[in-house]
Write a structure and sequence with these properties.
Layout lengths: L4 H9 L2 H17 L24 H19 L1
Length: 76
């Protein structure tokens, strides 16, 4: 671990329980960032290409504003 002296010194300062917790967290990170070549990529582009869907950015913006106002009114 000579490449990462700051990690090594930080590990030495941790109590055993914290080291176990760190190992659990590292396992989680390995799971989160793994690249699984056996799973094919799913391409979603053109998923609704054959459906008539005429919504503009302005329509979406207006809907978001309306929903935000309704949520604010409900809270007050």
């Amino acid at each position: 671990m000579a490449k990462y002296p700051e990690l090594e010194s930080a590990l030495r300062t941790l109590p055993p329980a914290a080291r176990r917790e760190l190992l659990d967290f590292l396992g989680y990170l390995q799971y989160k960032y793994r690249i699984d070549a056996s799973r094919p990529e799913v391409c979603l582009g053109g998923l609704w290409a054959d459906i008539e869907f005429d919504v503009t950015d302005d329509d979406v913006r207006a809907l978001r504003q309306r929903i935000s106002r309704q949520a604010q009114d409900a809270v007050q």
